[in-house]
Design goal:
2 domains, single chain, 303 residues, alpha+beta, Beta-lactamase, six-stranded antiparallel sheet
């Protein structure tokens, strides 16, 4: 499909999406409310009950417009699939949806460019890199390492993560993301894992890499079980809307007057969703979790 046609499709989808939506079968939104799938409605009314029904979802709408039976929101260019929370006052929001099978992705316009502190999302990689190091050395993961991995991942324990990070050579571990996962990261404060600088697309690719690579290394299954069992205070509330086994590692930190960073990253089946946010301190951590749920709801309803 040519660039001109893609642009035309995106413009038309945006116009139709904004023209009106309705649903007789809203999709539950985690944490309350409902996500209403886009539904094409005729602008006229009349007695023609035999008229063919319009497409029910954005995927079907794209298929109808492009003449393809397989149109997918992941084929849309970044910035084309809008979510309600984008543009909210004093909210910096970036998100990415990744197909873990073929690498296609979509997201906010800045999903591959705007960088955030990784916060605790990077703990999933520190845990996986510990497994990799053990495999490379030809030895099992020690009991102490297993305990630190579980604590760092399930309970987001900072001290446990710090021990893993130091044993791995500090920033040498995050530098290995390039070789192991094809993700090149930077840091705004060397020697501090939480200050690893990532984009929303980086976050999606890192957790997808952890999910896919962990079974290659000793203790990989236990790590994935940890990532499927984070404690309630570290959950975004998105997981109940996702099918099957879910890998989740979020990050949340209050940086004083600079405000909150709250990031949500989840992998399921062949998809990864990363939502990264920064906003004023007075809004509290729950505001960030709500943004994550709302973005996930909008994206899932379009898929």
């Amino acid at each position: 499909m040519s660039v001109a046609v893609v642009v035309a499709v995106v413009v038309a989808v945006s116009a139709l999406w904004g023209a009106g939506v309705a649903s007789d079968d809203p999709v539950p939104r985690p944490g309350g409310g409902a996500v209403v799938p886009a539904q094409h409605q005729s602008s006229t009314t009349g007695p023609d009950d035999d008229a063919a029904p319009g497409p029910d979802t954005l995927r079907e709408l794209l298929a109808a417009m492009t003449g393809s039976a397989t149109a997918d929101p992941l084929d849309l260019a970044p910035g084309s699939l809008l979510v309600d929370r984008e543009g909210e006052d004093d909210l910096t929001l970036s998100w990415a949806l990744l197909d873990t099978d073929d690498g296609r992705w979509t997201g906010s316009a800045d999903a591959a460019t705007t960088r955030f502190e990784a916060e605790s999302t990077i703990k999933a990689w520190l845990a996986a890199d510990t497994l990799r190091a053990a495999a490379q050395a030809g030895r099992p993961v020690t009991a102490a390492q297993r305990a630190d991995i579980s604590a760092a991942v399930r309970a987001s324990d900072d001290d446990a993560a710090e021990r893993l990070y130091r044993a791995l050579g500090r920033d040498a571990s995050t530098a290995r993301l390039d070789e192991e996962c094809g993700v090149e990261v930077s840091t705004s404060r060397p020697g501090w894992w939480s200050y690893t600088q990532i984009t929303a697309l980086d976050a999606a690719r890192i957790l997808a890499c952890v999910r896919d690579r962990a079974p290659e290394w000793p203790g990989g299954d236990a790590l994935l079980a940890d990532l499927d069992a984070v404690t309630p205070d570290g959950r975004s509330g998105v997981r109940p809307a996702l099918p099957g086994v879910v890998v989740e590692k979020n990050g949340w930190t209050l940086h004083g007057a600079a405000g909150w960073n709250v990031h949500c990253v989840l992998v399921w089946a062949d998809r990864t969703l990363a939502v990264l946010t920064t906003y004023p301190a007075e809004r509290g951590v729950e505001y960030g979790w709500t943004v994550c749920r709302d973005v996930a709801g909008d994206v899932l309803s379009a898929s």
